[in-house]
Amino acid sequence: MTVFEGIEHLLASAERLRAVGGKAVQGVCANFGVDLRQKYLSDRKHLYRRYLAHCLEDRELSEEENADLEHLRSLLHLAMDDVVAVHDEVAREVYGKAIQEVLADLKLDPEEEAFLRRLRGELQISETVAGQLFAEGERNARDEVLRKASSRDRLFLKEHTPAGEFTGRSTTTIEAAVADALAKATVAIPVRV
Question: What is 98-127 written as a DSSP string?
Fold first, then answer.
């Protein structure tokens, strides 16, 4: 067991996060000969980040969750700059996932727009960052639709054998030649209804 597994066990076994005192955390650290104030900054931030992500699963932070997060920040001896950086990172992830869900159908209706606006405010994401995340989400949604469409095309081609090659001719335009080829194919290929 590591010192952070010990701290996590201590926090998980408590009825409420704020019921865990600094002395209890110091006791776990003393068992491992660790001074949290001096070491393991990335591990401390990671533990804080995981708890914050857990709190944001419903895309809101209640007053109680904010109080728990402040208590956890104190227990883990995290500077406010570190906490702000973690909040920004997690907020971007949560907002990005919400955009992905909203744009899955490549449409943004008024209710979805209002939801994103509310969420942006809740997560305290600037309009500039929200715009960047939205543009990235639009690109990702289009890419996903294209990926699915092209995979369906490959599946269609794999499951269907070609009916033949049809050549159209025209002395006037390419469109007329294509129409001639389609007319030949229509006659040659039986239509199933």
Answer: HHHHHGGGS---HHHHHHHHHHHHHHT--H
